[in-house]
Amino acid sequence: MAIVPVARVTLFGTTEQKETVLEGLQDLGCMHLLDLSRDRDRNVDALHLSPNAAEALKYLRACPIRRRAVKDTTDFRFDDIVHRALSIQHEKRELHGERDELKQAIGSLDPWGDFRFPKDGELNGLRLWFYIVPHHRLGSLENLAETWHVVARDNRFAYVVVVSADEPNAMPVSRVHLDDRPLSELRQRLEAVETELEELHWQRVRLTRWNDQLSQTLGKAADRAARMKAAGQALDDPSMFAIQGWVPQSQVESIHKLVSEYKLSVTVELPSMDDLPPTLLFNRGLAVGGEDAVTFYTTPAYRSWDPSGVVFFSFSFFFAMIMADAGYATLLAILLLLFWRRLGKSPSTLRLRALFVAIATSSIVYGVMVGSFFGFPPSAGSLWDKLHFIDATNSTLMMQISISVGVVHLAIANLALAWSRRWSPMMLSQIGWVAALIGGLALGLGKSGTQPAQWLIHCGSWTLGAGILGVLLFSSDRPLFTFSAKAHGKRLIDGLMSLTSVSRAFGDVLSYLRLFALGLASAQLAGTFNDLTYKASCCVGIGSLLAVVAVVFGHGLNFVLAIMSGVVHGLRLNCIEFFGWSLPDEGHPFQPFCKKEI
User: What is the pTM of this model?
Assistant: First the structure.
């Protein structure tokens, strides 16, 4: 896991070479372009592609049935296909809405039968009013002055029609509104809509044969727009042009080959301290799975460090502590196996799959260690009982474990920041924070037992004091070796300001107690649902059904809550507490000028 070192590369060529050079750079796909243009107010809106074509391709790709791709482009009409695909999408959306309305209208009208509403004046000023009356309130209609009739009944309601010029006031329920079309006409229209939807579906299927051609056309259009934008960022002279950007140092040789091929001039410079190069993360192995979790929240600064590997393992461990059940973890592993092939279709899903494997494995291991299997403890004397050595019911122990995990996690964060500041005396302030965290933990553990551990208290006190002293003396970026008393005074003031973060450190460490609290909540819910299942199974008759409902609904709900808590709080501890100490500066991502794949 590392941040790729980059170099600033500037290419110089004649104006006639500009388009060719841009195509070559786009083929290489290794340069993050910088804007050298003097025209800061140029209009780039025209360079953006209309979203209609991409929306049409997305719609056709989502079709469950696809035709064989056509290679011959003779009959390919890009605009016509895009227009027709979007028209089909719009028509289907409208027809789906009409179908839902028709089904609702038919369902409402079906008990009343197939009839036609009388025309105006056909009943000499009288109108029909429709009511759905519960059987127990039907007797209240006996004294109704208007003419009424029950046209249908079911096991709950009577369907009553009242003939009156005005709406009756004595009815026990409000009237219902029915569609003014006859039931037979509604059913005919529903059949017609279903036929139209089926026809549109097969039209959509026929258009899917052009998916590859659409994708290639969109890709070429996107590449052309990117080259136009890159051309606008170049520095233009009547006879010369210059293009500048950041390139990974490992790719500089490829740039030199391009320069030799097109007979260009080139300068290569390493970034200075005043530069802010983009950040390009490069990971192999398991650390790849943590890269997405890092970039999901932030982009590390170029001169900081890549936390992908640490986040990969810490997120998996935090998730395991929150789930705290080997049974749920096994169920999670089964779900992972069911989606195994689907998660291996692209590089991004492969990275997620590696992370999911680590989560499932660590959750099973931790669940066995705490001895929880869907809320049940292991049988006495069994292999699982021998592997159970963490008493999750011991609140003091679990709080100590959670606090210790938090201290170790934040200590790693400060050590990583110290490494990135290894050429500065400020590195010692991060070492001081590590000492303060470990010393505070030792002091707390020494005093937490029934009998205080004096040696632990003694070591913790000295380590804590040394850490605070290191923070006080080395938290300033002002010159250290100087004879100016004023400069040293300002350094002490900076150190005192840094010590105000003691409360922040204390709060961040306590934040890791959520690992204990959420794990305890998951275990308590599992045990509660098991008790409900046992009590329900003791009931005669419907007890077995209630027991099944308690198991499926209860453990299903607890399983979903455990996953949500593991994701949310696992990310929170990494992105808020850990990044807050290890990544004080944020960078911007490396965006290569390359060809697009749509």
Answer: 0.77
